[in-house]
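User: Sequence recovery, please. Input:
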């Protein structure tokens, strides 16, 4: 147990008043499996691909976060922000990651802002491959996600991750067809999470991501 109250392997994910994310965690775990099967050197950031990246999460956060943003929007009508920045931990045994991409749901800096990191095991020693927690709870555990920029899915066409996202999306579809992970109550759970963002809209005319 660290001084922040987090076990080295798995921090608690629930607290009174926080969004219920149980069904979301199950769905995200399935998404992560799909992504792992589709990752390659071509979908990794060039700085990692040059060193033989592709077998693990290193360098995959940009394309994977863009893919997840598309799934949230077009399958569940949930808008998210694509964030680029760094993970600054204050937890014994967990290393920082200076170049990170993840998703956020909710207004920036809101206490109940939801952080979704589909490649959180890029952080040495964290011991979790997916994080889906309120930002204030993560900070209590000593995990600070610091965003240098936030983009909507519609803005990603000009992002350097866009070509890699297209390759990743194609690989996921090739591997699975139209099948995607889900469980009874997943849609309801995701909608419940989305309610923390009062501006969440779903507009079928916005097709820049998928």
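Assistant: Recovered sequence (210 residues):
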């Amino acid at each position: 147990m660290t001084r922040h109250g987090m076990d080295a392997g798995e921090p608690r994910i629930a607290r009174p008043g926080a969004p219920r994310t149980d069904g979301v965690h199950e769905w995200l775990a399935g998404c992560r499996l799909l992504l792992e099967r589709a990752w390659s050197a071509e979908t990794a950031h060039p700085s990692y691909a040059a060193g033989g990246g592709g077998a693990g999460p290193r360098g995959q956060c940009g394309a994977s976060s863009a893919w997840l943003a598309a799934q949230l929007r077009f399958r569940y009508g949930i808008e998210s922000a694509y964030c680029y920045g760094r993970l600054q931990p204050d937890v014994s045994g967990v290393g920082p990651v200076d170049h990170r991409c993840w998703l956020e749901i909710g207004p920036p800096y809101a206490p109940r802002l939801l952080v979704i990191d589909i490649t959180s095991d890029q952080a040495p020693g964290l011991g979790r491959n997916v994080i889906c927690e309120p930002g204030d709870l993560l900070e209590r555990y000593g995990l600070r996600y610091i965003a240098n920029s936030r983009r909507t899915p519609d803005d990603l066409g000009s992002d350097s991750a866009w070509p890699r996202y297209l390759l990743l999306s194609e690989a996921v579809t090739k591997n699975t067809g139209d099948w995607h992970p889900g469980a009874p109550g997943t849609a309801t759970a995701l909608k419940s999470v989305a309610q923390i963002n009062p501006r969440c809209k779903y507009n079928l005319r916005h097709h820049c991501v998928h």
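Strands lie at 81-89, 97-105, 114-117, 131-134, 143-151.
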